[in-house]
Amino acid sequence: MNNFDRDKIIKALVTIFGIILLVTVAAKILFKTGDTLDVYAENNPEVAYATPIPTETPTPTPEPTPEPTKAPEPSKATNSNGTPLLSNGATIEGRFEPHDGFYCELISSKFTDHYDPDHYMFLHVYYYDFDQNVKDGELICEATEAERFLNTFYAFYEANYSIKKISLLSSYDYDEEAAIADGDTYINNEGELVLNPTVPSVSSSDLTAD
User: How far apart are CA 108 and CA 112, in angstroms?
Assistant: First the structure.
């Protein structure tokens, strides 16, 4: 190493040492004049002893009170519009026809004085008279029994079961004795089928009422 390089290194070390010395002296001066926390509090009471502003607690939003659920009404023979229901729960809208020509529908207004339109229906069936001619039969029964009676009279018809007459009780001013005397087949006020009189070509026990 030559003398020039050695001088450069010595100058650099002297410079670094001088900087360190200056920093050390400055730090001592600063720390010597620094305030403690107590002194700072005495000199600055408006800051040290200031009461912090409380943070407002948000008011909770009350949850809406749920409305009580209404208990379902007991099942009826009619829907909410008062339309009769069949025994299988189907709603009558217009006409229910399980077999051609064998159908039920809402009763007309001319029968509502005697029958509750929400619980009774008009039935149309076919039957064979004593001369084996196909005739139109009309009855009124409870809505829940309509499908059963339609199937019963369809079974009579399929078996060529002869019946003198099937007409409405209104034809006899709702007089059952007059209907029986005329040989009419009808459904009475108790919902029972009055089959009178007949000329059975098969035993009535062979016919289904389901």
Answer: 7
Residue 184's closest CA among 203, 197, 193, 170? 197
Q: What is the pLDDT of residue 204?
A: 47
Residue 105 φ then ψ, to 5°: -155, 175
Handedness of CA 113, 119, 124, 128 (dihedral sign): negative
- Strands 165-166 and 184-187, sheet pairing: parallel
Give per-10-residue mean pLDDT for the chain (210 aa).
66 74 58 53 58 62 67 49 70 84 92 90 96 96 94 95 95 94 93 86 52
**Beta bridge pairs of residue 106:** 121
Return phi, psi of residue 39, to 5°: -65, -40
Return the DSSP state at 172.
Answer: G
Kindly tell me the burial class for residue 55, based on how many C-beta atoms sit within 10 Å of its own C-beta (0-12, 13-18, 19 or more). exposed
Backbone angles phi, psi at 124, to 5 degrees: -120, 130
Contacts (Cβ under 8 Å, ≥6 apart) of 83: 91, 92, 93, 106, 118
For every residue of 96-138, DSSP letters joined together read: EEEETTEEEEEPPGGGTTTS-TTTEEEEEEEEE-TTS-EEEEE
The confidence score (pLDDT) of residue 42 equals: 66
Query: Which residues does 72 contact at the CB level (< 8 Å), separation at least 6?
Result: none
Q: Quote the pLDDT of residue 127.
A: 97
Instruction: Judge whether 121 and 137 are in contact, CB under 8 Å.
Output: no
Res 94: pLDDT: 76
pTM exceeds 0.85, yes or no? no
